[in-house]
Design a protein that fits this description.
With about 300 residues, the protein is α/β, with parallel strands linked by helices. It has helices spanning about 5-10, 65-75, 90-95, 95-100, 110-120, 200-210, 230-250, 255-265, 280-300; strands at about 30-35, 35-40, 45-50, 55-60, 80-85, 105-110, 120, 125-130, 140, 145-150, 150-160, 170, 175-180, 220. Strand 10 and strand 11 (about 150-160) form a beta hairpin.
Length: about 300
């Protein structure tokens, strides 16, 4: 039986590698609320704070898109980039660091710097080289910090191991806009990157806690997917709870992973498998995650 880590190296490179032809993708800008705008291109969503202090961006997609991102930013403001915040270390969120890190200070949770600096051996998929010096965060934190920028507090909160071990929630307190990184993706199955310290149990717990503490009327920028609100996160949490519960019941009844895959999920979750993470991969992620949790519980006795 393969380990979850072995399974995860077969994932297409949404999180870690740059897709071919990415430079041809357009980058579009949409106002969100207050100081905050949303840039969409290829890879993770980018939040932009625009105001008298300059520009602050959350994530920066892939390096070949940097010229188009610059053009989109120039339409919002001719000011310089003061800060680049990374929600986690994956290349579709940090690929532009080498460019934008020459302009503004990169800020991230400590594990993000550690993983970027080390790179990663993906076995048969090749090796992700260590990041260049200019692509590394120069300001790091353990549990969180705040920046006071463009007239509001920008609150960074580290979430325990979930999507990875270095995930950060970014909340623009005055604009009432939250960027979740990949701890929340809209109407899609998520990627739990065990190889980067992620955890199924932690992922579900994190997003449940975020949902419970959402400010009223907050606008939410997910790691991937359209701008949304509390209702979008509620749908996502309901999907997580139900699919994990279904797989747990089948596993507890003695069904194999192959049987669970063959039976699939209810029709209403078909759309979630149309994103990057397909239904079979999500079922395997959940099944292996539950196995790991059960083994941990046994070892603890």
């Amino acid at each position: 039986m393969r380990s979850l880590l072995a399974v995860l190296v077969t994932v297409p490179a949404l999180a870690l590698a740059q897709p071919a032809g990415v430079e041809k993708v357009p980058v579009t800008s949409t106002p969100v609320a207050g100081n905050v705008h949303l840039l969409v291109g290829a890879g993770g969503n980018i939040a932009v704070s625009v105001g008298p202090d300059g520009l602050l961006i959350v994530d920066d997609q892939f390096e070949p898109l940097a010229p188009k991102i610059h053009k989109a930013l120039d339409k919002l403001s001719q000011a310089k980039i003061a800060y680049v915040l990374n929600t986690h270390w994956h290349g579709d969120h940090t690929g532009g660091n080498a460019v934008f890190g020459r302009e503004g200070r990169i800020v991230a949770q400590r594990e993000v710097r550690t993983r970027l600096a080390a790179g990663q051996d993906q076995g048969s998929r090749g090796v992700i080289a260590p990041a260049k010096k200019e692509a590394l965060p120069v300001i790091t934190y353990d549990t969180g910090m705040s920046l006071y920028f463009n007239g509001e507090e920008v609150r960074l909160t580290h979430l325990p191991a979930g999507h990875t071990d270095g995930d950060t929630l970014v909340y623009f307190t005055g604009s009432n806009v939250m960027h979740t990184g990949d701890q929340f993706v809209l109407d899609s199955f998520p990627f739990v990157d065990v190889a980067s310290g992620g955890s199924l149990e932690g992922y579900v717990r994190n997003v449940e806690q975020v949902l419970q503490t959402l400010p009223p009327n907050v606008k939410i920028i997910p790691g991937h997917g359209a701008l949304t609100d509390r209702a979008g996160m509620e749908r996502f949490v309901a999907m997580l709870r139900e699919t994990v519960s279904l797989v747990r019941a089948k596993r507890d009844a003695g069904k194999t992973l192959e049987q669970v895959k063959a039976e699939g999920l209810p029709e209403k979750y078909k759309v979630y498998g149309e994103g990057f993470i397909k239904q079979d991969f999500w079922l395997e992620t959940v099944y292996r995650g539950l196995e790991k949790g059960a083994a941990k519980a046994t070892d603890g006795k």
